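Lab meeting minutes (informal)
Scribe: AK
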Amino acid sequence: MAFRHRGRPKLRWVALAVLLLAIAAATIVVAVSRRGGDVSNPDVEFSQSQTQPAVHRAVQKPPKKGHPSDDGFKWPIFGLDPARTRVLGLPRALRPPFRVAWRVRTHQLVEFTPVLCARSVFLLGDSGDLYKISRWTGRVLWKRHLGTLAASSPACSDGVVYSVLLRRSGSSAGRVVALGTVRGEQRWTRRLPARAESSPLLHKGMLYFGIEDGSVFALRAKTGRLVWRFQAAGAVKGGLALAKGTLYFGTYGGRVYALGLRDGHQVWRKSVATGGLLGAGAGNFYSTAAVDYGRVYLGATNGAVYSLSARTGRLAWRKQTGGYVYASPAVGAVAGGPASVWIGSYDGNLYSLDARDGRVRWKRHLGGKLSGSPTVIGDLVFVSSFDKRSSWAVGANTGRVVWRWHRGAFTTAISDGRRIYFNGYGSLYGLDPKGERYARVSAGPKRAAGGRHARRKPRAARRGGAAAGK
């Protein structure tokens, strides 16, 4: 009797161990299957034509009289347009060799691209400094210290520039601030209850962004007054994308939301990257969504790129890469090419995916961690590698490398159709493509960007690296 009594706890421990092993095995199976599996639902609705064509065109003719930057072109928010498609169509392609017209050293990490309004570009550095820089000469017209940490692009319109901060001075939480573009004076500011790195969306007098406690804000751009606030189930790191009166974004925790623009009501919510048993295979959405062709596109830290129906949220496809996907996609069709999604991964590859079904049109191994978002300018895709400190221009339809420069780290460039405004690791460059008018009127030194090796293919990365999340 005593022997049987001593054996019962032992049997219970054995049973518990077997159960834990079974759970662990199931977790591994779920994680592997979710990580390795692509998904395709070809019957999900897809529009044959681009939904944002009008705002993708830059006028490449400089003004006949007056200032060379008075061309009426704007790149007012991260991603160019409210749908965040990141594609600038040009009637005439820009080609290397690119020449350095000017350089502005910020002495801080430059992670997100500037925005462009009127004669100036506005750049927010990671140390919380906002710069106003002349498009033409590269002269710093003013600089304002807004906080102690930032990781987003500002937004500009109608003589005001708006910035979202991860951390304000004297606090671990962030703030949003509006400054006049002429003198840099503060128009209004609003303290936030948590950190914020969601590049603000500016649309028809309203400002939209999310923060790390899951809140999404809609503020009056003129005053900063709160119009509505939505609570998501996860940190909102990326920016919000807008199409046809609906806002789209992903969260940490793997959910994608669609909200009504007017009052913030939830249209739909989909848990597409939340993982399986015990959270296995879960992915976070740091990526800012892009919306086109009736679809929502974004990448996740589980290594997958997703396409969902903009109307219903139904998953159209999931394409697995070989590493983290922090980048925001560029979406569109250029130079007569097909509807495509361009996105980089921590596996060192730049991908061109079919926008309808997610199949790989081409992939180019550039090496390193492609954590920044690609930008399509004309028929070239510009992208940078963080750990290789290099950037490339790749044919959007061919995948062929046409230019490389040993500068850059995160999100690479914007353009006004004549000049490229290029992010180095801690500097902003004005680059003049071959034959552009800016090259004849710009002040400052002229140096080749890329030199003789501009057209040489980069070597493949010899080793990988662990992902470093935000």
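Next up, CB showed the second protein from the same session:
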Amino acid sequence: MSHELRTPLNAIIGYVDLLRLGVPAALPASSVTYVERIGASARHLLQLIEEVLAFTRLQAGGYVPEIEHVDLQELLEEVRAVVEPLAGQKHLEFTVVADNVPVSVETDARKLRQILLNLLGNAVKFTDNGAVRLDITTESDGLSFRVTDTGIGIQAEQLRSVFDPFWQGDQSRTRQWGGTGLGLAISQRLARLIGGDITVESQPGAGSAFTLRLPNPAA
């Protein structure tokens, strides 16, 4: 099913990219916007499918940790390369601070990268003004990755539900952003799979802070 769902969408995205490059012929100026909207919608649908499939695999025990030596700075640069343009599109300040942290860690690189991208992507999505920040610090029993934003925040009574599958908070406020409501659920399950955990603090109207803690990170 994974293959069957991805294949036609990847074909759509591929043909959109060809059309934007002028293959087989340059697009009329009046068509460019429509083609770009097709591409954006296809990519959004692909992301939703990826989230549903990832959650299904986690529920079925289909993910196994692959612990290895990971270059932390390299991983952070990869994350920055993805998030910076997203923040830039909304004119948000995006900062990564990683002072006095290990050069490498022992963890599952792909799962750590996905968790950070999920948390940062959510922060950008729900922040219209201000900044998104990622702070990495060494603690006595491990390493922490703290994602903070100046977004809409979360009501106190909803904090206990943010990691529930398909949770999207107050629908009247979140409907405009869309999504499956699986990003945080997936992130929490991936975090626990690699021996960590995610906690959240938030104040409505003043932003949120999600902290991923990984134990014994030094490699």
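CB comment: The mean pLDDT is 88.
No objections, moving on.
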